[in-house]
Amino acid sequence: MAGVNKAIIIGRLGQDPEIRYFQDGSAVANFSVATSEEWRDKETGEKRERTEWHRIVAFRKLAEICGQYLSKGRQVYIEGRIQTREWEDRDGTKRYTTEIVANNMQMLGSRNDVGPQNAQGGGYNRSPQGSQGTQSGGYPGGPGPGGGGYPGGPTGSGPSASEGAPDKGYSDDRGFKGNSQPDIGPDDDDIPF
Predict the structure, then answer these.
(1) How far is CA 173 from CA 69, 164, 176, in A?
(2) At residue 189, what are phi and psi to the nearest 5 degrees?
(3) pTM
């Protein structure tokens, strides 16, 4: 029986997205989104709030769009899957990170809005179909060179930042198949049931 791995969050960016490029020219964006929940303490009646930070990673065209249109404080809807990766840092220590691999992003509010008002903005949807090359060396996460030697920000035929955020979703059928992302899950033969 197949499982379900889906995450949906609405929150605000904690910093501008960090964009890097692989040797094959495909982009990867990393950023954090904060979500908050509020409740009243039953004993004191005080209003309480807890903020949770979520690490987000986006690939290819979605990464370029995130880099072009998202900024610190911007409210965003992210849909994707939860992934835990393992790598060794420069000291040889094993490190782990859990993140949401985004496949759908909607910008909420206006382009200049970093406050609590919400208005439906533009978005981007990447369908997980097809194949688009391979990443050189996989996706190591953590600090280090992004590879590819592509200076400057993303380029493309989409609207420029001066034209404002797009008001429609974008679709990219290149998706996740092939070697475009590291295989981190267990093989079906390794599952004991």
Answers:
(1) 21, 24, 9
(2) -75, -20
(3) 0.59
SS (H, E, C) the chain: CCCCCCEEEEEEECCCCEEEECCCCCEEEEEEEEEEEEEECCCCCCEEEEEEEEEEEEEHHHHHHHHHHCCCCCEEEEEEEEEEEEEECCCCCEEEEEEEEEEEEEEECCCCCCCCCCCEEEEEEECCCCCCCCCCCCCCCCCCCCCCCCCCCCCCCCCCHHHCCCCCCCEECCCCCCCCCCCCCCCHHHCCC
**Tens of pLDDT, residues 109-148:** 876 665 544 334 444 555 444 333 333 333 333 333 333 3
User: Are 126 and 104 a contacting pair, CB within 8 Å?
Assistant: yes
Residue 27 sits in which domain range?
7-181
Give the model confidence (pLDDT) of 11-61 as tens digits: 999 999 999 999 999 999 999 999 999 999 899 989 999 999 999 999 999
Domain count, the chain: 1
Q: Is residue 37 part of a domain?
A: yes
Determine the Cα–Cα distance for residues 76 and 151; give it in Å rounded to an integer.
27
107 belongs to a structural domain: yes
Does the residue 118 lie in any domain? yes
Alpha-carbon torsion angle 6, 88, 22, 76, nearest 10: 30
CATH number at residue 30: 2.40.50.140
- Whether residue 131 lies inside any domain: the answer is yes
